[in-house]
Amino acid sequence: MKILMLHGINHNMFGKRDPKQYGTITLDEINANLIALGKELGAELEFLQTNSEGDMCDRIHQGYKDGVDAVLINAGAWTHYSYGIRDALAILTCPIVELHMSNIHAREAFRHVSVFAEIVKGQICGFGEDSYLLALRAAVTAAKVAQGAKR
Questions:
Q1: Edge-to-edge strands, sheet with 96-100
Q2: Is residue 126 part of a domain?
Q3: What distance in Å separates the CA atoms of residue 137 and residue 131, rounded to the nearest whole number?
Q4: What pLDDT is stored for residue 107 in this prediction?
Q5: Which pLDDT score, from 0 to 100, does residue 15 have?
Q6: pTM higher than 0.85 for the full model?
Q7: How far apart are CA 65 and CA 62, in angstroms?
Q8: Residue 77 forms part of a structural domain
Q9: Whole-number pLDDT of residue 117
Q10: What is the C-alpha R_g of the chain?
Q11: Which helix (H) or strand (E) covers residue 73, if one does?
């Protein structure tokens, strides 16, 4: 099973950026934890972190062409306004799980809205670095269900 993990804008600064909100874990540590859990669950992960909206859309398009089984996305601030990324995600036929380390519903009002909400399988937020692991578990389960439905 192939899972695509998409990290959005400013996530390369995890560990340095606003530790009260995001903790001190780095993006490399998050990815290593996902790889370890993926092995347990029988999933191989591919990663992209970008600060370029166009690169994010291009990788989503490539994921469609590659036939990935599920997509995890923490798009950061793009979650709240990027209709370009939303439209790229809408092309996918696999389950998409949106995740956030912080609880976006307990923060500034503009963060309460996700333009992806209507097209994702589900959202996980507010559990810090565990949001990633919970999202991976959910994506693997959703992909297995989707694969079963295709048979």
A1: 44-49, 2-7, 70-74, 96-100, 122-125
A2: no
A3: 10
A4: 78
A5: 76
A6: yes
A7: 5
A8: no
A9: 94
A10: 14
A11: strand 70-74
Question: How many domains are contained in the chain?
Answer: 1
Is the residue at 105 inside a domain?
A: no
Q: Is 21 exposed, middle or buried (0-12, 13-18, 19+ CB in 10 A)?
A: exposed
Alpha-carbon torsion angle 108, 112, 115, 120, nearest 10: 130
Taking each helix axis from N to C end, the angle separating 83-91 and 53-66, rounded to the nearest 10 degrees, works out to 10
For the chain, 151 residues long, the average pLDDT of each consecutive 10-residue run is 97 80 86 98 98 98 98 95 96 97 79 90 95 98 88 58
List the catalytic residues.
Answer: 22, 100
User: What is the identity of the amino acid at 142?
Assistant: A
Q: How far is CA 80 from CA 61, 89, 113, in A?
A: 20, 14, 6
Which domain does 10 fall in, by range?
A: 1-70
Q: What is the pLDDT of residue 92?
A: 98
Identify whether 108 is part of a domain: no
Count of CB atoms situated within 10 Å of the CB of 117: 12
> Residue 14: which CATH number?
3.40.50.9100
